[in-house]
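sanity check this chain:
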Amino acid sequence: MHVIAITGGTGSGKTTLVQSIASKISNKEILFLSSDSYYKDNPKLSFLEREKINYDEPNAIDFNLLLEHVTDLKLGKSIKVPKYCFKTHLRKREYVVESPKKTLLIEGILILSNSELRKEFNLKIFLECDRDLRLKRRVNRDVNQRGRSEKDVINLFSKRLDSMHKKYVIPVKKYCDLVINTEVEINYDELIKKIKLL
């Protein structure tokens, strides 16, 4: 199994790239995992306490479970992927069963911040994008898909996301095999051909 990382700041276009790959490669050949599914579950905390957690630092991710799942997939075992609710900041009771495929693609802002997980990747892709464009994309997503207000998203960006980007996202670019500027519309056909040949 070949394992690919797609990382970059929030709003850099990770989901768009994943969708492009999914449209060109059969789902029989590639399995997609998002680190968003692996946020730690904190049911013992109140909702207000969960809201105060910094979800943009490595400690928010259950890397032990993610690593366990990558290991199991490489061993030919199926995994139970958690479903995470962004409104309650809790894992849902249900999960998704996924089986090993030829290629495993993992996307997320913080996936290369973990040195053990970093060792598992055969190809690491970093998506680079201007801060203001990333903010615009993040506002659009959070307002339309996660029920957040524009003001709250902008405040979060300036008070936390900018500093977390500098601290945890920019430094992992040096580990990447490929850096793509996503400020313009990109044709990912050459990259998809490369993935198919892995």
Q: What stands out?
A: The radius of gyration is 17 Å. The chain has a mean pLDDT of 90.
